[in-house]
Design a protein that fits this description.
globular; Rossmann fold
Length: 257
């Protein structure tokens, strides 16, 4: 992407990425910075390891989406630091271990919803006041936002809730020139996901290699989705190339049914 083209798409826009220190969120930060966004804030429970991982012009601060005071303080700091927010990417989320509904801990259910659904709502809520000139919000959902997945009820339900939030808020904020969309990635072999597979392997499940191979065979492109695939989709939805797109979920490497 040429500097001139990047400037035409981004100008002096400013971005906030929750969950931007690792995995998909970190890839999105790299993509946005590489496309020309020079002012951004990374909000994450765990701050990025090493200052070299934070792009030039970007800053980071700790955020715990389970704690309302942390959310308010972090977003207030982001608003004061940036002055205005043009792009919000809500990438923070948690995925519990596979558990049958009969053994599901109600407290775990509440924690998953607190981050994956309520946390997205609070991120949007705190960003709107800083989007006076309009902007774009991108929520990282999942293929599980429209599909079921056995032994993962809390996660699936939370992603369905996040998609419902996106569709509703898009209608509400459209008159303010704020677009709200979601991305539904297929299986992504992040470090966190591989760690979950390894734990399941130790409990008698498929080996990590066999589990990933099975998911690759089931994917439309016959390969796992990469963090770069998701990051490029986020870049598209956040940019003027998607100026007429709102209230939708974009599948990335995921089956449509």
């Amino acid at each position: 992407m040429t500097d001139a083209f990047a400037a035409s798409l981004w100008g002096e826009r400013r971005a906030v990425v929750t969950g931007g220190a690792n995995g998909i969120g970190a890839a999105i930060v790299r993509e946005l910075a590489g496309a020309g966004i020079r002012h951004g804030v990374i909000l994450d429970l765990e701050r990025a390891l090493g200052r070299s991982s934070v792009p030039e012009g970007w800053q980071e601060i700790a955020l715990d989406l389970r704690d309302d005071a942390s959310v308010s303080d972090a977003f207030e700091w982001a608003r004061e630091t940036l002055g205005s927010i043009d792009v919000l990417v809500a990438a923070a989320g948690i995925v519990p271990l596979w558990t049958g509904v009969g053994a599901l801990d109600p407290n775990e259910w509440d924690e998953v919803f607190r981050v994956n659904a309520r946390g997205v709502m609070r991120s949007i809520q705190e960003t709107v006041p800083a989007m006076e000139a309009g902007g774009a919000m991108v929520v990282i959902a999942s293929q599980n936002a429209w599909r079921g997945n056995e032994n993962l009820a809390s996660y699936v339900a939370s992603k369905h809730a996040a998609l419902g939030l996106v569709r509703s808020v898009a209608l509400e904020l459209g008159p303010r020139a704020i677009r709200v969309n979601a991305i539904g990635p297929g299986s992504v072999a992040t470090d966190a996901y591989v760690a979950r597979l390894r734990r399941r392997e130790h409990e008698g499940g498929l080996s990590v290699e066999d589990a990933l191979a099975r998911e690759s065979r089931a994917a439309p492109l016959r390969r796992l989705t990469t963090v770069e695939d998701v990051a490029r989709a986020a870049l598209f939805l956040a940019s003027d190339l998607a100026s007429g797109v709102t209230g939708h979920i974009l599948p990335v490497g995921a089956p449509l049914s």
